Amino acid sequence: MSETMASSFWGPVTSSVELCEKNYTHSSYIAEYYNTISNIPCILLALVGLVNAMRQRFEKRFSVLHISNMILAIGSMLFHATLQHVLQQSDETPMVWEMLLYIYVLYSPDWHYRSTMPTFLFLYGAGFAIAHALITEPTVRSSPSNV
After folding, report:
1. How confident is the model over 19-40, as pLDDT tens digits?
2. What residues form the annotated binding site?
3. Among 14, 36, 54, 145, which has the highest number of CB atoms less than 10 A from its own CB?
């Protein structure tokens, strides 16, 4: 995969994709340095949003959304730091869950079928997580120069 991974703290790269950066150029602990540190503002902004949502007593769905944003950013940070397959799932699966949560937050006040849509969103998210855990070969790859 990468010619610079010999000094990796985490062992060989096991993820099914590598992104635009050369691996382990800044540290033997961080595979994709810029992809990793770019998640720090996401975590901080989600924390600010959570504090403001709680302070202003917004509905709980908004607090859950900010917590979900933090979980997504932390999972992404872990994946890009290690390029391990298990942590790749902690990056990709929360992206789908986040999308489903956004659908819930945006459209839940207008639903005519209040129990059907949350059930569908939950089942879709659970089905995706299971399929993603079982299917280890990606159907879409990064650019040929990185494969």
Report:
1. 778 888 898 899 999 999 999 9
2. 21, 23, 32, 80
3. 36
